[in-house]
């Protein structure tokens, strides 16, 4: 083979190899989709599905309470620059519609809880003359692992609409993550199975574990309702103290987002020592025991079952 022909063949092979590799290289250099999630737990779910193709900013970070959150101007600008926004829905982010309007946001808004069967609770009327009860929607749907899988499905759909070329990647990530969630759900059920149903009673700061209760057969009681913005009434606290004494409830927890003083007061009045901290509406920081959704659910389940068993 002469030198000229050899050079031609080498050039052709290099050209073909470059052409074959260019889509891969292009995919690696595409800027990630800009996403905003309303709070840390949802942000983790979006990251699990989005992978490297999605850059997620969270409005209400670890240790903060979305019920009482007040968006800042810089966060409004962040939303205005986003390509897709994820919220929980079910009334959890009462500030979201106002924020989207302030930001002038016209892009995709994914409500992650869409399709979930909501729980409705009876709350005492807050006005002085109101002796009646009124119904409130419990927004904490992520506290059931099967519900978290519904969130994942809604996240996949939203990301595929925002980034069609990445859809296969999002679906693969979702399949892998759902496998983790199925294993998590199985483990939680097995952990509770060894504890008699009559002993599965827990006191928490606010009524954030209704979906966990329904999924795993646990009874939760709380001085505050589903919204931490409401005040616990003296009458309600007194009734709770009597119930703790009567039923000999031993599992008393403060939540990571809540003021611990009320739970400490209940502990003093009942003689039940608070067993530790639960993560209801927020993840822990990166070094904590609940840095992601799966870790949070495992940490909560371990804390709850150990407290009930007296460990």
Automatic annotation (TrEMBL):
CDD domains: PsaA. One of its GO terms (molecular function) is metal ion binding. InterPro entries: AdhesinB (IPR006129), Bact_metal-bind_prot9 (IPR050492), Lipoprotein_PsaA-like (IPR006128), ZnuA-like (IPR006127). It is found in: Cell envelope. GO terms for biological process: cell adhesion; metal ion transport. The keyword Signal applies. GO terms for cellular component: cell envelope. Belongs to the bacterial solute-binding protein 9 family. This is Metal ABC transporter substrate-binding protein.
């Amino acid at each position: 083979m002469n030198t000229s022909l050899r050079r031609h063949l080498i050039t052709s092979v290099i050209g073909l190899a470059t052409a074959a590799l260019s889509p891969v290289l292009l995919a690696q250099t595409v800027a990630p989709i800009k996403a905003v999630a309303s709070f840390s737990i949802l942000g983790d779910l979006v990251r699990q599905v989005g992978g490297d193709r999605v850059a997620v900013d969270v409005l209400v970070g670890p240790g903060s309470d979305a019920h009482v959150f007040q968006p800042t101007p810089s966060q409004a600008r962040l939303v205005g620059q986003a390509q897709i926004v994820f919220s929980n829905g079910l009334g959890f982010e009462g500030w979201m519609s106002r924020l989207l309007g302030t930001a002038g946001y016209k892009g995709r808004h994914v409500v992650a809880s869409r399709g979930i069967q909501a729980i409705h609770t009876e709350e005492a009327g807050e006005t002085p003359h109101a002796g009646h009860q009124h119904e409130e929607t419990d927004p904490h749907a992520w506290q059931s692992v099967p519900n978290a899988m519904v969130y994942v499905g809604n996240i996949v759909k939203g990301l595929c609409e925002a980034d069609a070329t990445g859809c296969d990647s999002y679906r693969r990530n979702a399949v892998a993550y759902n496998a983790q969630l199925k294993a998590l759900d199985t483990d939680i059920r097995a952990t509770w199975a060894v504890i008699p149903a009559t002993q599965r009673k827990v006191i928490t700061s606010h009524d954030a574990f209704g979906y966990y209760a329904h999924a795993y057969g646990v009874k939760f009681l709380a001085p505050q309702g589903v919204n931490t913005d409401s005040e616990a009434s003296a009458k309600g606290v007194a009734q709770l103290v009597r119930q703790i004494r009567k039923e000999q409830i031993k599992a008393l927890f403060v939540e990571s987002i809540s003021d611990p003083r009320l739970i400490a007061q209940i502990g003093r009045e009942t003689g039940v020592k608070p067993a530790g901290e639960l993560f209801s509406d927020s993840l822990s920081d990166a070094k904590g025991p609940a840095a992601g959704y799966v870790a949070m659910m495992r940490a909560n389940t371990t804390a709850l079952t150990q407290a009930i068993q007296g460990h």
